[in-house]
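User: Some background: our group keeps a shared notebook of sequences we're curious about, and every so often someone picks one and asks for a predicted structure to add to the entry. Today it's my turn. The entry only has the sequence so far, pasted here. Could you supply the structure so I can complete it?
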Amino acid sequence: MKTLDGRVALVTGGASGIGLASCRRLAEHGATVVLADIQREKGEAEAKAISRHDDGRCRFAELDVSDEDAWRSAVAHVAAQLGRLDVLVNNAGIGIGGPIETLSLADWRRQQAVNLDGVFLGIKHCLPLMRKGGGGSIINISSVTAMVGSGTFVSYAAAKGGVRALTKAVARQCAALKDGVRVNSIHPGVIDTPIFATLEGIPASARDPKALIDTMVPLGRLGEPDDIAAAVVYLAGDGARYVTGSELVVDGGLLIH
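Assistant: Of course. Here's the predicted structure to add to the notebook entry:
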């Protein structure tokens, strides 16, 4: 079913993992998708592949989410080429681990710049275009670490906690303005994505997501990017029209006490 027909979506970190799965799902449901990523070659290739499958419904935009000028250019391009923006998926992220006493200030700031500042900048620059079109849905990819913390990924948990709080704050602001924009967060658990191969500050032996299943995931399997993409499609569509400021946890039961 083309439940998102006629809508325009922008997905950051769209060249791989959760972002790529979200681009594919949104296009399948009828949205025109802007796949935004810092990886130009891979991003262009994936956008072309989606377009071949879904009738030209995907295009690439190079975007460093930590760069405000890059956000200005990306949103201006969407406005000029597509005329509207209905869905924003703030997904781009990096993972830096290690004990807080050895974490450098530079790495702390780099983590926040991508995972939290990038969400702030996306909301700041996309909101006016969404409001111009009568509203829309902002979907911020947070993490279960925003709720329970992480002794391994202190700066990551802090950034994702910031995303959680920012989501609720902007949801309240938009609701008060009656602007038609809903703002929600998704909190993935252990998802099998390429981020595990790029994690910093931890030993290679700790980068295997399968090692976490028995001790952390009651359902007994890794989550897949498509599990999160399905939640993205739900929050993007009219089925979630009365949902804002909410936390959608998709974690295989990890938070069960």
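Suggested note for the entry: The chain has nine helices and seven strands. The chain has one domain: 8-250.
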